[in-house]
Amino acid sequence: GAGVSQTPSNKVTEKGKYVELRCDPISGHTALYWYRQSLGQGPEFLIYFQGTGAADDSGLPNDRFFAVRPEGSVSTLKIQRTERGDSAVYLCASSLRGAGLDSPLHFGNGTRLTVT
Amino acid sequence: DQQVKQNSPSLSVQEGRISILNCDYTNSMFDYFLWYKKYPAEGPTFLISISSIKDKNEDGRFTVFLNKSAKHLSLHIVPSQPGDSAVYFCAASGVGNQGGKLIFGQGTELSVKP
Fold first, then answer.
1. Model pLDDT for residues A71-99, shown as the tens digit of each residue
2. A104/B34 Cβ within 8 A
């Protein structure tokens, strides 16, 4: 498909485990964003990549969260020592060149993470 | 600190009538605003945007109005259709946001009844 693809769609893990969430952006989009959405809230910014580098990681809540985009396309969000409070829908988005008025974000369907 | 606020968690309107969704913001540095629509189990999809130098932008049944002095924007949907039932998020970005990251409101769930 031509949209942003996220896998898995659902992930259930035990407290303390490590998880990886994958995002395949739209082909040719240089900018990639990770957001987190909790129930009843809007998406909350986590990190933004321009190409291979993290241009802004100010939204990562703590050092248990890490993301990579080694070849400037696919990105992986990694969460260590998961906690129940990490349960949320993790959304990935891409845009042609950094979000702007003429370059809106295109979101995937998200990964629903449940930490038991 | 909630920079973008949608104070109405839900709205119900009759098919064919106007839907008005509201959004307030606090950061005067924002220079553009967007509305996204979200269906259950799907990611948000872009709907319409507006630059801070404009006060209105229209696209078909959707019109966004911006009142900079009041730091308020609204989305009008006319006429409303049952397929418009979804959660609507307003979002803002601009000079102060590196990379153009978007700041989202909490969302308003619109229900359009046949």
1. 999 999 999 999 999 999 999 999 987 77
2. yes
